[in-house]
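Re: [ENG-882] Designed sequences occasionally contain unexpected residues at chain ends

Forwarding the minimal case from QA. Structure tokens:
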């Protein structure tokens, strides 16, 4: 497992490595838990097919609600933000 800067809240690699954004701890606990569970389910189901969703429902019955709430938050990638500011200053 890795904690790093990424634009995503988390992702699971095909080799089974799970990566989380360090900003995950700033989310409401139940939303952060949703992200962690989502990625851990990918260790078994590396897609978003029916079996993945069935497992999510069995673990977090209202995961779709939490998924929608998560879309209200934006993970900030400091590397990206710095490049954006540098480009604006060059204008």
């Amino acid at each position: 497992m890795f904690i790093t800067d990424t634009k995503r809240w988390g992702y699971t690699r095909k080799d089974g490595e799970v990566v989380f954004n360090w900003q995950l701890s700033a989310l409401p606990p139940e939303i952060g838990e949703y992200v962690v569970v989502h990625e851990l389910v990918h260790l078994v189901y590396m897609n978003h097919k029916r079996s993945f969703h069935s497992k999510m429902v069995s673990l977090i019955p209202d995961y779709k609600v939490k998924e929608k709430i998560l879309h209200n938050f934006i993970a900030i990638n400091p590397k990206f933000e710095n490049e954006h500011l540098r480009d604006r200053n060059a204008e």
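QA comment: On inspection the terminal residues look reasonable. The chain has one domain: 2-90. Proposing we downgrade this to a documentation issue.
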